[in-house]
Design a protein that fits this description.
This protein is 32% helix and 24% strand. By secondary structure, the protein is α+β, with helices and mostly antiparallel strands. It has an 8-stranded antiparallel sheet, with helices on both faces. It has a 5-stranded antiparallel sheet with strand order 7-8-12-10-11. A hairpin with a 5-residue loop joins β10 and β11. The longest helix is centred in the middle third of the chain and has 25 residues.
């Protein structure tokens, strides 16, 4: 066997937002399932905790460890495309952007996806990454099978037919059950989506929220704090023809305004908070209405170069409008100055134990602040509103909830922890974050 530790380093790790750092004793990039299993056995013998990590796009310390950090850099690529079953089996460390491009070349696509595609497949699914959809759910809900290496080095294949009890919980596993090495996802023939983006007032979008969700396959909107303005986006399947954004107009909207100018505005707002309400009014009017048609990943995802810290809660969909109005009232009466828009999306109920949409149709409310801006006061006030509506925090985004709270909002919480007790009784994969949210 190739010596796994030829790929070992001891450098510090930092997440994308820069709000979480860790200094593992060693970091390893196994090139095979066998090498990974051996790395886990050695870590256990050495008394080290183990955490797999993706690209660090989580805002929590879910991947932080002072023991052994598993990087999936060498576990990449497509293993198999099954056109009869309409599935793709992909190595866990494959970035979503590479998977999307490879599927498009094969005339295939995921049904739904989040709004960025920098994450690894395993990292995105393990934390419950989602987009927005009336009928189509998170990326994890599109998993048909997965390969999991457990604490003792056992390699398990899990699906609805094989180890179904593990499959029911491991599709969103938080890295607490083992290390995922491959994932089989449902795919479909590539299709076209028409995106319609347009401004709308806060009062109108909240009054018409249920209708907008019902009438569109994918609906989302952004509210700009300190204003009554929103930007809405409706994505629906289209017969075509493809009509992507023009090169110049697309660059203006997606790069200049959404990244370049926004970066400058956020930097100014952080330095001089009093300017934020005026900047928000300008920003909320800068993006004009537009319509374009393209293949799914080019419509669902956008470049996100301005770094931020984020909190997101999933609420019962019927509670979303009331919570949003409470959020707006809180911002309006407080001294807070919020430079980032609030993002609102939806998802149908699914059957994954720790999915934020588990067993209930959900709406997501996400709040952000520019990296380096103190966020505790804002996020604390938001979290108070969300938890009053039985909100479930996104597993990869800032929250202060503990296992006692989470057991109350996840009816199948005990099902997950029972599988964890069986697969990792000695807590090889534990860290401070998992101790807080799952208990010990």
């Amino acid at each position: 066997m190739t010596d796994t530790y030829a790929r070992t380093t001891t450098s510090a790790w930092r997440n994308w937002a820069g709000n979480v750092t860790a200094r593992p004793v060693r970091t390893v990039s196994p090139a095979s399932v066998d090498e990974l299993a051996e790395a886990l056995r050695r870590a256990s013998d050495d008394g080290l905790k183990v955490k797999p990590v993706g690209t660090g796009h989580s805002f929590t310390a879910t991947a932080a460890t002072d023991g052994l950090l598993i990087r999936p850099d060498l576990l990449t690529g497509i293993r198999d495309i099954d056109r009869a079953a309409m599935t793709v089996t992909v190595e866990a460390g494959t970035p979503l952007k590479r998977l999307n491009a490879a599927l498009a070349r094969e005339g295939l696509s995921l049904t739904n996806m989040g709004d960025i595609m920098e994450q690894t497949v395993a990292g995105a699914t393990s934390t419950g990454t989602h987009g927005t959809g009336r009928d189509s759910a998170s990326i994890s809900a599109q998993i048909r099978a997965l390969e999991l290496v457990t604490a003792d080095g056992t390699v398990l294949t899990c699906s609805a037919d094989e180890n179904p009890d593990i499959f029911a919980v491991a599709r969103i596993g938080l890295g607490a059950l083992g290390v995922i090495t491959a994932i089989t996802l449902a795919v479909e023939p590539v299709f076209l989506l028409t995106a319609r983006e347009e401004p709308m007032t806060f009062d109108k979008v909240t009054a018409d929220f249920d209708q907008l969700v019902t009438e569109n396959e994918h609906f989302e909107f952004y509210w700009f704090p300190h204003t009554g303005n929103c930007n809405t986006k409706r994505n629906n399947r289209s017969a075509g023809p493809a009509a992507p954004p023009g090169r110049v107009s697309g660059w203006i909207d997606d790069e200049l305004l959404s990244n370049g100018v926004f970066q400058v505005a956020c930097s100014l707002g952080r330095a001089v908070p009093a300017t934020i309400p005026s900047i928000a009014k300008l920003s909320s009017r800068a993006l004009s209405a537009r319509t374009y048609t393209d293949i799914p990943y080019k419509v669902f995802t956008s470049p996100r170069r301005v770094r931020f810290v984020e909190m997101e809660y999933a609420l019962p969909r019927e509670a979303a409008v009331e919570a949003l109005r409470e959020l707006k009232a809180m911002v309006d009466r407080s001294p807070l100055r919020i430079s980032f828009p609030v993002e609102v999306r939806t998802a149908p109920a699914d059957d994954i134990a720790l999915s934020t949409a588990s067993g209930r149709e959900s709406a997501y409310i996400a709040v952000h602040l520019y990296r380096g801006t103190p966020y505790q006061a804002y996020f604390t006030a938001v979290e108070r509103i969300m938890t009053a509506h039985a909100g479930r925090p996104h597993w990869g985004k800032v929250n202060t909830r503990d296992a006692a709270y989470l057991a109350g909002v996840y009816p199948r919480f005990g099902e997950f922890t029972a599988v964890r007790d069986r697969l990792d009784p000695d807590r090889l994969f534990a860290n401070d974050y998992l101790r807080r949210v799952l208990g010990d």
